[in-house]
Fold:
Amino acid sequence: MNITEAIRARRSIRRYKEGIRIPHKDITIMLEAAMMAPSSGNTRPWEFVVIENQDTIKELIDIHPYARMFRTASAAILVCGRPDLQPGVYGGFWPQDCGAATENMLLQAMDLGYGTCWCGLYPLEDRVKKVQEMFQIHSIPYAIVALGVPDQEPEARGFFDEERVHYIK
Ligand SMILES: Cc1cc2nc3c(=O)[nH]c(=O)nc-3n(C[C@H](O)[C@H](O)[C@H](O)COP(=O)(O)O)c2cc1C
Structure:
């Protein structure tokens, strides 16, 4: 699958095959893809928490109102922002940087045969706080990504909208 195909075929997956453990090497490839993303001044203001414990994964359902897919997910990857790593003129861009890292991870997961669903955390204060407390972290929980082998095949969709494009010629 090349990038053109992956971008157009990607869908959020909310039902996964149960009882599957994702090999450590595949998780590492996804994290590597995330950390290859562009970032403001190359500050790479992120860190990741990989959650493989099944009880902990299911607890996420209680702290996020739209995260029922964690019932069947094999793993969850928490993407956190580190604004402290982004000083001076580079500061403030960390949410964009974390977004780029998250999307890289989603596309890489797809190429490895996995499905994902991006669950938003930042900038909703209550979700950010609950996740910080749950994992005892000081970085800023940005998104939590559900990961697993898909047990559904939502069709690819096309959203290209010429009206949203403005050309200056
Ligand atoms: C910032 C962000 C937050 C999202 N939060 C959730 C969420 O909490 N729960 C969920 O099921 N999907 C969530 N999604 C996935 C979107 O619902 C999904 O990407 C959108 O409906 C388009 O569908 P597709 O990903 O299948 O193309 C989120 C996506 C983004 C980018």
